Every structure is written in structure tokens, then in C-alpha cells.
């Protein structure tokens, strides 16, 4: 289906504007996503009034939460083929930092899902 | 242990008399296997003990091992009959392993006290867990384990000295923080440090439930503006076989107020006196077939507002216009209104099913599909198969798991399989090609719901054999291919559809999405722009365009997209302004 750059671009769309404010209510903080095996990093910044998603590590390893997973797992989570907690239990998703933020990860994923284009019958 | 073996041998004798030497051998084999498993288990706990460096550790599980071991011989006697036992043992091992791992987090001085409590509770828990496990094998495994540990943690936290420590922490936190939310968060964090895995999983499940409750999980494309508004159409229960209750009102566009009127309306002429041509509806049809959706919409709306509000066909065509414009929500409203006047129209019903599928409303899709089959003139004589599964509940645990993951609840899954059977039998009932095409189309849609994409593709292809020039069918096939990661194959289908109808907005949009899937971002952007030129009202497409531009790293064009300035894009991309 979609690709990793698209997913994070969609995440950017999801956190911009009103949607972002709603997410911010639940979730103040910064997150770095690291996607293996290329080890690309994306940073989600929900701490300031304007939330953004950008490529690369914007917080210099000082983000509130660091999430690491493979591209395959990320796509599976986006497509609802696996839940984040399942991935975590199996060790396919690694989390470091504020656990409280990690718990809100599903909200971010759901918001991103809504912004991803899907072909219509 | 003596007791066990006494009863064991008695039963054993009976067992052996029934089966010859083979039973004896397999018994031994099973007990050997069990012993091996026990051996590895001991090895495991010893290893964890080493890691923890707390000498007290081994006694706990060893004790239970003995009790566990005590139970072993009895059960292995029946091993040949009950195949699940090795798995059973493994399960219990896992649980015990996790428990011991969990204990790692307690500071050593509390260990002893914990051990006492552990042993007391563990024998109790052994009984409990066995029963639980036997009842719900696969999916409850994790949840039960987690819950046990949580309960255990709470229980042991009460009885141990560590309780004071936790209290101290929270008291401290109260002093420092003033806002309630943050206290909650911090306390949360405090606890999670001690038992990360279980707490996290529980919290995630809670967050999901909370999120699902608060933010409607449906993918509501035409309502992107109010993304997190809980826009819930009051549930439209399909009461009776063909009546559909419509609670949402359709909002006419302002221009259709007096569209197509034969005399120029003055402000002082009363609306009833205005004259409208009789063929307004037909004109609408002409516009629609020529691909001019906007004037078509105006014609139909005017027909409904000024000539005949009961015009079921006009409602239906209006719905079709909206769906071509990729505004499924509006289309649904129109079709529901059309069904009010003409409840048996199979075309409307099928279109409604497709719209529900696009809006990810599986329940309504399946219900409407049932109505479609029920009301289809060609299948009037067919027996309506009653859902057998509904009577007996379902032993299909796999189905439940699968449904949950895909966002389908279990009953919908069952109904869907029902409809599938109905459709397949409809194929047998009426071998006429044309009727078959209808059924294949419906089947394709059903398979999209259950995500049997291969079957869906096959069904649509067969439908296309009968109707090769149906551009909507082509689009459906393309969309199915795209959604199952076969975007490359989808592109020719979209091209075919667009050749049949060059102004097919949805076709352009879907093609753009496929290009995006194939990472042809500039092509995708071009198609999005084309879509926008055909339908400037489609706000979500601007969002998709921004995504494509971002992926293509054309950041300088983003502000243009943000301002929704379509004209400015002409110099960057080659698209036609209709």
C-alpha cells in the first residue's frame, strides 16, 4: 500500500491544524521514530502550539519518547494488521522514554490512518 | 503423591486393558516428554535466579514445581487421549517464567516476604489458571496472564513493606505538581517503572478503547474538515424488510433554488408561479452522461426542489453524481431518500452498499446487501437461507480474531459470510449472464469487506466479461487491486475507466492514489490536481496533494497547496482545467 515517507507525511497532516490540537490535549511531548533497517528517523513534535513531523532527528536524542521498529511492522500497524501492544510483546517494537506517551501511540496512529488516501470502490 | 499414583494405576489398568502395549509405550513417551519439559523449566528458573543474584529465588518455583510435578504423573496417564497436555505444561511454564521475571523488579529485602505470599497464592492460582486456560485457549492467553500478575502485584503490594515506599512517592508528587492531569501522568510513570510490560499493555488497551469511544473510528473522508467531531448520524436501523429510516436531511446547494427556470425570476414573483421545463430531469441525465457533474447536480436538485420532491430517480441520480464526485456521505443521504420513495430499486441498494463500504461502515453495508438480494426481481423465487450460525453462536474463534483485527465485529462477520452464501447460491439459481454480472459485482464488494482481495478481483473480472464498458466496474476492479498492493495492475484499469469517461473524478483520484503507492509522486500530484479541477469542493484532496508533495520533497509548492490556489499549479504540472 503506502510507503513510510507517505505515512509520516500523513502524520504531519494529521497533527497540523485542529486534529493536532486535539492530539496535543492528550499527548504533549516529542517522539522520534526510527525505522530499521535503513535507520531513518522522523520526529514528531507535539509540544509546541504548532505540531510538526519532520525527517531526521530534530531533538538531538533528547526526545521524550523514542520508538524503534522495522518498516514492515510500521506498515502492519498502520494497516491495522497488528496492534502496537502485540508488536511490543513480540519485541518487534522497542520503546524508550516516557511510557505515558507510548500509551498514547495508538491515538497518533489512528489519526494518521484517517489521513492516508485509500482507493474507493 | 502416593494417592495420585494409586488412582492412577487403577485407571491405568483399565486403560491398558482397552488398548494393547502401544498405550504403555506412548504413556512412557509422554511422561518422558513431560520430565524433559520440567527439566528445561528448572534450568530456566535457575538461570533467572543467577541473573537476579538473589539466593532465595529458587525455593519458590521449586516448591510449586513439586506440586506441579505431583500432578504430572496423573495427567500423563491420559496423555494419549488428551493431546493438549504438552502445550498445557508449556503454557504454565510460560506463566511461571513471567512471574519470576516480574519478581526481579522487587528489591531484595522484600524477597522473602514475597516468597511466602507467592507460594500460598501459586497453588491456588495453579487451579484457577488451569481452568481458565482450558476455557479460552488462544487469545485469552496474554490477557489472563497479565491480569494475574496485576492482581498479584496489587495483593503483594498491600502486604509488603514496599507499600510505604509507593505512598511516599505519591505524597511527594502531590507536593510538587498542581495540575491533576500531570499528577496522573507522573503517578502513572512511577508505577510503570516497576512493571513495564503488563502495565503498558493494559494502558494501551485502555487508550484504544478510550480513543475509539471518543474519536469515531470511521474513516470519514467527506468530512475531513470536522475531523474529530463525533459526527454520528443517528443510527439508521433498517426496520422491516425494505424501509430505511432517514434522519439526516439533505442540504441543497444554494444555486439550485431556481435553476433552469423558464422565466427569469424577479424577487416579487412567488416561487409557485415560476415555471420550470418538464424535461429538467432529462437534461440532468444528459449532463451526467457527458460528465458534467456540476450542472447535472443543479438540474436534479432543482427538479427535486421545484418540480417533484418525490422523484425517486432524481434522488438516485443525485446520489450517483455525488459518488462520482467522491462525496460518499452526501450520496448515502440521497440514496436513502430515494429508497424512501422507491424501496425496491436494486440499483440504488447496490450503490448504497458500495458507498457504505467506502465509508467503512461494514454493518450497514452487509445489511443493505441482504436487502439487495432479497429485493432483486430475478431472485424472487429463491429460498432465503436462514443464518444457521446465529442460532448456535459461533465456535469460530479464528473468525472472531480476524474480525477484531480488521475492525469488523463478530456478528457482522457472520452476516457477511451469510450474504456471501446467498450470493453464491443466487449464481446457481439464475444462470442468465446479465443477472450473473450483478451478482459478481455484489460478490466483489462483499469480498472487499472481508478483505478477500483475490476473490474480489476474480469476481469483478467475471462481471467485466459481461459488461466490459462499465466504467464503474473498471474502477471497482482497480480500487480492489490497489487496496491489495497490486497498484501496478490497477493503473491500466483506471486508464480504461477514464477512457470510457474522461471526466470521472473518482477515477482520477484513485489513479492518483495508485501512483502515490508506486511512489510516482509527481504523477500522483498531477492526478490530484486533475481531480481538483473537476471538483473544487473536495477538501480532502488538497490534503492528499500536500502529502504527495511532501513525499516528492517539493516543499516550495506546499504553501501553494495550503492556500488552495489551483491556478498557480498550472505552471508546475500538466493538467486540464475543465
From TrEMBL, chain A:
SUPFAM superfamilies from the entry? SCP-like
Q: Where is the SCP2 domain?
A: 20-109
Q: Which InterPro entries match?
A: SCP2_sterol-bd_dom (IPR003033), SCP2_sterol-bd_dom_sf (IPR036527)
Give the matching PANTHER family: SCP2 STEROL-BINDING DOMAIN-CONTAINING PROTEIN 1 (PTHR10094:SF25), STEROL CARRIER PROTEIN 2 SCP-2 FAMILY PROTEIN (PTHR10094)
Q: What is this protein called?
A: SCP2 domain-containing protein
**Originating species:** Cyclotella atomus
Origin organism lineage = Eukaryota, Sar, Stramenopiles, Ochrophyta, Bacillariophyta
TrEMBL record, chain B:
Q: Which subcellular locations apply to this protein?
A: Cytoplasm; Peroxisome
Q: Which GO terms describe its cellular component?
A: peroxisome
Entry keyword annotation includes Repeat: yes
What are the UniProt keywords, alphabetically?
Answer: Cytoplasm, Peroxisome, Repeat, TPR repeat
What is the protein's major site of localization? Answer: cytoplasm
Q: Which organism is it from?
A: Cyclotella atomus
Organism classification: Eukaryota, Sar, Stramenopiles, Ochrophyta, Bacillariophyta
Task: List the Pfam families.
Answer: TPR_16 (PF13432)
Q: Which Gene3D superfamilies does the entry link to?
A: Tetratricopeptide repeat domain
- Name assigned to this protein: Peroxin-5
Tell me where the TPR repeats sit in this chain. 312-345, 437-470, 471-504, 505-538
Q: Which domain of life is it from?
A: Eukaryota
Can the keyword 4Fe-4S be found in this entry's annotation?
no
- Would you identify the family this protein belongs to, as annotated? Belongs to the peroxisomal targeting signal receptor family.
